[in-house]
Write a structure and sequence with these properties.
Blueprint: H1 3-19, E1 27-36, E2 41-45, H2 47-57, E3 64-72, E4 75-82, E5 88-91, E6 99-103, E7 106-112
Parallel strand pairs: 1-7
Antiparallel strand pairs: 1-2, 3-4, 4-5, 6-7
């Protein structure tokens, strides 16, 4: 995946995570979320369900204190950290740190663990 596109999508992802608002061009309408935490799992199909899960699980604004994105042949890996001591979270990509794919210039699948 093109490094400039990865950076653009990653910056939009940070905006989404911090505000709960999806920037134009971030997700396809048929986005699929598979969120796995240590003791529970959430799945959402479609942008509206994904927004609802974000707002239910983290209703207020937040701050991504640092992030990293690496292109892969079929997508990218995105890691972010909330707060100075919060655990790193992995979103999107297709290697050992996460899984996801891109079709056109928008994300269409996010796996998180």
């Amino acid at each position: 995946m093109d490094a400039d596109l990865v950076r653009a999508l990653s910056e939009k992802m940070v905006t989404f995570l911090q505000t709960g608002t999806i920037p134009e061009g971030l997700f396809r309408p048929d986005i699929f979320l598979d969120l796995t935490m240590p003791t529970w799992r959430v799945q959402a199909a479609g942008a509206e369900e994904l927004i609802a899960e974000r707002k239910q699980g983290h209703p207020g604004p937040g701050k991504v204190t640092r992030w990293r994105a690496d292109p892969t042949p079929t997508g990218f890996v995105f890691e972010e950290r909330w707060g100075p001591r919060g655990p790193a979270v992995v979103l999107a990509g297709d290697d050992a740190r996460g899984s996801g794919r891109r079709q056109d210039s928008r994300a269409h699948r996010l796996l998180h663990w």
